[in-house]
Amino acid sequence: xxxxxxxxxxxxxxxxxxxxxxxxxxxxxxxxxxxDTPFPEFELxxxxxxxxxxxxxxxxxxxxxVNVFGSWCVACVQEHPKLVELSNTANIKIVxxxxxxxxxxxxxxxxxxxxPYHRVVFDADSLLAIDLGITGAPESYLVDKQGDIRYKHVGxxxxxxxxxxxxxxxxxxxxx
Amino acid sequence: xxxxxxxxxxxxxxVSGSALAQSSTEAELEARAREVGQSLRCVVCxxxxxxxxxxxxxxxxxxxxxxxxxxxxxxADVINFMQDRYGDFVLLKPPVQTNTYLxxxxxxxxxxxxxxxxxxxxxxxxxxxxxxPPLDDEEKQRLERLxxxxx
Lengths: 176, 151
Known about the structure:
heterodimer, A: 176 residues, alpha/beta, Glutaredoxin, 43% helix, B: 151 residues, mainly alpha, Helicase, Ruva Protein, domain 3, 5 helices
């Protein structure tokens, strides 16, 4: 009898539990299925030189931070100083993917805010972006020496994101 | 002269025939692209399909769908291609698999659970409230006596 009276309460508590869990999740972040899979093969051109072909082989071989940005992307402006700082202080190769942009705008943007990238891949038609499962900019990937994607970060790389999440992964990748 | 005429007719028939065939495959491809596009979720505005969405990424995804269909992929190939990159989330209709069993079968389990509970409850009620037999003569006299006393 007692069990029966508290049953609705228990069911309600379970429901509240599910809803509470659902509310803490950000619907914009979609778990990437690409973690631990090889970085996609691509053949695009360099942002600065339309004749220079860039492929996966040009990017991989060491630990790389691949950052997808665009001159149209407001959040990228916010993120950019951190990338410039990292290019000077953190010993890591940073590669940019200028996504859905025009060459002029992309180059002007990098001139204005600084170019932290070892290489900038120009992807106007989302060819690499879709292979990377991009949903928006900025998004960043950590790629290991073997060329496998090991982590994906959606959104701005803040000081906190770098210190708490990305830097420890880089340290771990170096030991491998 | 007649022969030239015949050749001309034959030739024009062939040309128009192949043109017709081409436009029908194009229309077919377009229909397939729409069908595929309607089953893929736009990852920017998440409650629209890429066919409905105005987001630029959806536009690029639509183009990619058409390109892959033209290259000879089946509808399922194209959907798998997107699923490999964006996960199950990109499918507007969730696949029936271990982690979606609750989603697909939960409502039916709940429905049958409620039906079972309802049937048991009503059955129990009819068991615990047996039919009350009418009063016999002696009981009627007693009742009248009691009522009479009150008056």
